[in-house]
Amino acid sequence: MQVEKYLNDISKNQGTVHLTLIDPASQSPDEAAEIAFAAANGGSDAIMVGGSIEAGGALLDQTLIKIREKTSIPTILFPANAGGVSAYSDAIFFMSLLNSRDINYITTNQAMGAPLVYKFGIESISMAYLIIEPGGTVGWVGDAKLIPKNKPEIAVSYSLAGKYLGMHYTYLEAGSGADEPASPEMIKAVKKVLGDNKLIVGGGIRDPETARVCVKAGADMIVTGTVVEETSDVAAKIEEIVSAIKNE
Ligand code: 1GP
């Protein structure tokens, strides 16, 4: 399956893509598979797998293997470093944290991981990864020079740089568990310059209304992670959010 085409077709025909993020460190592989199964039933379009800490090696492989046994929607690696590459995924967000102060997160981990992506034949989806305030764990780990919430023009500058470098997707990340995602003003300003390039928004989206505001502002794809860890009914929670963003 061509995952990028699959996502872009959903974006074109159904309005918005919903992605569920599963951190392999947060539960057992079997539990991750149950969550993925429920998320797919709730209408999520793909499962992103990754996390900042303890999310690699056998645990990452097993999590992907179990998820793929249980669901037919695609899996996409969301790696924090070169250790976040696994042979058991359909695709990888091949991303550069453009606003990091640390070259390891801009090009070095990418270079160390690239030969594995090549060897495993995983589809690569190029992405400019931008971390805005508050940034959370990923902001700390990635040594991001956090983009201030009230400075859409800085997010616009980085997004344009990513686009001109040839990246197809841009991800505005507030950090997992953030109080709120990127502001509608920032999303709108970034989407305006991105044009047909896809804009992903994540970090701090917990309810349908917040998701809808992001979509109305211009987000093409919405990521939710924490919400599936906190709810007792994953399918119902995802369904609420998905029904709020499809055909918005
Ligand atoms: C984190 O943007 C994702 O990388 C998801 O954030 O856990 O807040 O949904 P949440």
Description:
The structure is a single chain. The protein is an alpha/beta fold and 248 residues long. The protein has one domain (3-245): FMN-linked oxidoreductases (TIM Barrel, Alpha-Beta Barrel). Helices cover 46% and strands 17% of the residues. It has ten helices and eight strands. It has helices spanning 3-14, 29-42, 57-70, 103-120, 136-141, 152-164, 184-194, 208-217, 226-230, 234-245; strands at 17-22, 46-49, 75-77, 91-97, 123-131, 169-173, 198-202, 221-224. Strands 1-2-3-4-5-6-7-8 form an eight-stranded parallel barrel, surrounded by eight helices. β2 (46-49), α3 (57-70) and β3 (75-77) form a beta-alpha-beta unit. α2 (29-42) packs across α3, α7 packs parallel to α8 (208-217) and α8 (208-217) packs parallel to α10 (234-245). The longest helix has 18 residues, at 103-120. The mean pLDDT is 96. Bound molecules: SN-glycerol-1-phosphate. Residues 21, 138, 173, 176-178, 202-205, 223-227 line the site of SN-glycerol-1-phosphate. Sn-glycerol 1-phosphate binds at residues 171-177, 203-204, 225-226. Mg(2+) binds at residues 23, 52. Its cofactor is Mg(2+).
> Strand-residue fraction?
15-25%
Secondary-structure element order, as H and E?
HEHEHEEHEHHEHEHEHH
Major sheet characteristics: 8 strands, parallel, barrel
- Output the number of helix runs: 10
Catalytic activity: sn-glycerol 1-phosphate + (2E,6E,10E)-geranylgeranyl diphosphate = sn-3-O-(geranylgeranyl)glycerol 1-phosphate + diphosphate
Cofactor: Mg(2+)
GO molecular function: heptaprenylglyceryl phosphate synthase activity; magnesium ion binding; phosphoglycerol geranylgeranyltransferase activity
Binding site for sn-glycerol 1-phosphate: 171-177, 203-204, 225-226
